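Continuing from yesterday's entry. The apo prediction looked reasonable, so today I'm repeating it with S-adenosylmethionine included to see how the binding region is handled. Same sequence as before; SMILES copied from the compound registry.
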Amino acid sequence: MSEDSYRGAAEGWARGAIRVYAPIAEVLIGRSPVMLHGGGVLDVGAGTGVADAPLRAAGATRIVAADLSHDMLMWQRATRPPAVVGDVMSLPIRAAGFDVAIASFVLNHLTDPVGALVELARALRPGGAILATVYANSSQSANRDMVDAIARAHGWTPPEWYRHLKSEAAPLLGSSTAMRDAATVAALTDITVDEEPVEVNVTEPDALVDYRFGQAPFAEWITDLDPHASVSIRAAAAAAITDTMEPYRPRVIFLTARTRS
Ligand SMILES: C[S@@+](CC[C@H](N)C(=O)[O-])C[C@H]1O[C@@H](n2cnc3c(N)ncnc32)[C@H](O)[C@@H]1O
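Holo prediction written out below.
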């Protein structure tokens, strides 16, 4: 099993990064090509469970979360669906047990995303649906980059796993063509791929800083900061983007596809 890079990141994710990931999960779930009402859903790379609310709202009755990170799955465990620690490349579940598999921002961690799609398909009944998102390679934000620059100026260095993700894994599916090709090689059918900006309602500097500093690559650095330093660095980052702030609209690649009937 791969290393858990999200250890210690759950609270930051659930209080900060969620600002961006929850609205995207809602959009993704709204595109399901199969009925979610009464269905069984496997949420792979579920993290702190941002997909739970929209899945329940859509009527999914049996949700199971899977994630490499025990920490992420433990966030608000008492109110979350059942969960299993596992690698998307080899899930500890039986075949054909679900109607839908969600993979929201997990395929971008992998150097073999086709293998992951094949494994997700194994979890599904014939005709089941895979719903996935990754960031487009074209997704850029000068304000987000400025927040990173302020963090670097205060001692943050991107962890090795994150540098590897950005250089070796994330670019692999970061275009519509690449995502479509991967789904085709994985023998999926009814493939729909869209690349588009998503309105996540992050319009204020503080919100962008909360989102960015809530992401896993910042977790260890923030945890080690003195609380006063943490407050002042957040304020410095927000101040640095106040004049240039515009609504944050990440460009996302949405995949919906089905297993053969
Ligand atoms: C970017 S977060 C997304 C979490 C959640 N889907 C969301 O949208 O908020 C990626 C999640 O995938 C998990 N992950 C990374 N690599 C994985 C793998 N090989 N197998 C299963 N989960 C993995 C991480 O632990 C993390 O919780």
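Comparison notes:
- DSSP finds ten helices and seven strands in the chain.
- The pocket of S-adenosylmethionine is lined by residues 2, 6, 21, 25, 44-47, 50, 67-69, 72, 87-89, 104-106, 109 (CB under 6 Å).
Will overlay with the apo model tomorrow.
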